[in-house]
Amino acid sequence: MKHYQQLLDLLQSPDESNHRLAISMMQSYKWIPQPNQALYQQLVFDSTKLELCLRMKFEKLLKSITYWGASEKELVIIPSVICDLDALQELNIAQCKIVELPYQIGKLLKLQKISLNNNLLDELPPSFAALAALKELHINNNIFKSIPKEIILLKSLERLDMSHNNVESLSAEIRYMRNLKVLNLDHNELQYLPDEIGDLKKLETLSIVNNELRALAYPIGQLEHLKYLNLSNNYLSELPESIGQLSQLLHLSISENPIKMLSESIFRLAPTLKKLDLPDGIDNAFLETLKRKLPNTEMSTSVRVGRL
C-alpha cells in the first residue's frame, strides 16, 4: 500500500487523534495490514489502540485477529477488549504478572489454545467453562491448589499442562475430562490419584514427576490408550497389578522411587514397551528377570537425588 509509511507514522505518534485518522484511512481504503507487518503489530498488540479499533468499529481488522499475545512483561490485568475478538483462536499471555482473567473471557467461543504459564493465577472466572472449542491449555507455573472446576467442565479439552503449581489433590470430578489426551501434573504436591483417573479413556500421556505420590490407584490399568507414563521422583514403593493392563504403553518411568520389586504383571507389557526407566534400588535379581522377559525394552536406572 502506497500510504503504508504514512499510516505507520500516524500510529506511532503519541496523539490519539492521529491514531483515529490512521484507522479511518484504512477503513475508507477497506484495507487491513498483514500479521507480520509493523502496522498490524501497532494496531493489535497495543491494547489501547486495539480498544480504539473496537470503538471505531474497524470490523474488518477485528474479524482477522486469530492470535493475541501480551508484550508487556509487567502486565497484571488482561485487557477486556480481548474478549471482543470473536475470531480469536489462540491467546498467549505467558511470563507476565497476571492475577486474574477478565470475567467475559467465556465469549471467545472459537478459542482453541491458551497459554497462561508463569503468572500468578490461583482461580478462574466462571465463564471460563464456556470455552467450548478449547483444546489446549497451558497454565503451568501459577499457584493453583487444585484443578479448577472451570477446567474440568471444558468438554473439548485434549491437552492440559498444570505442572509447577501447588496442586494437592484431584477431585473425583476429573472423570468428566473424557477427551483429555495429555495431562501434565509435574512438580505439584499430589499424594494420590483418585480411582476416577481410570475414566480418562482417551489419555495417551500422563506425567506426575516430582510429587508426593505414595501409591498408585488400581484403575490406572483402565487407561487403554496410555502410551507414556512418567512417575519419576515420588515415594512409590510398588505399582498395582493393573499396570500390566496398559496394552499400548511405550514408555514407563518410575526412576527415583523406593521401588525394589515389581508385580509380574509388568511382563505383560513386553509386546509394546520400548523404554523402562527404573530406580537404582531395584533388586538386581529382578532386574535380570526384567531384561530376560522384556528383551525389546531399553532399560536404565537412576540414583534418587532428592526433591526439587
Explain how this protein is built.
The longest helix has 14 residues, at 16-29. This protein is 19% helix and 12% strand. It has helices at 4-12, 16-29, 38-44, 47-55, 59-62, 149-152, 284-293, and strands at residues 67-69, 90-92, 113-115, 136-138, 159-161, 182-184, 205-207, 228-230, 251-253, 275-279, 298-302. α1 (4-12) packs antiparallel against α2 (16-29) and α1 (4-12) packs parallel to α3 (38-44). The chain is an alpha/beta fold and 308 residues long. It contains seven helices and eleven strands.
Summarize the structure.
Helices cover 19% and strands 12% of the residues. With 308 residues, the protein is of the alpha/beta class. Strands 1-2-3-4-5-6-7-8-9-10-11 form an eleven-stranded parallel β-sheet, with no helix packed on it.
Radius of gyration (CA) equals 25 Å
Distance between the termini: 55 Å
Q: Please tell me the CATH architecture of the largest domain by its name.
A: Alpha-Beta Horseshoe
**How large a portion of the residues is in β-strands, by DSSP E?**
5-15%
What is the CATH T-level topology of the largest domain? Leucine-rich repeat, LRR (right-handed beta-alpha superhelix)
- Helical amount: 10-25%
Q: What structural category arises from helix and sheet content? A: alpha/beta
The main β sheet shows up as:
11 strands, parallel
Number of helices: 7
Task: Name the descriptors.
alpha/beta; Leucine-rich repeat, LRR (right-handed beta-alpha superhelix); 7 helices; 19% helix
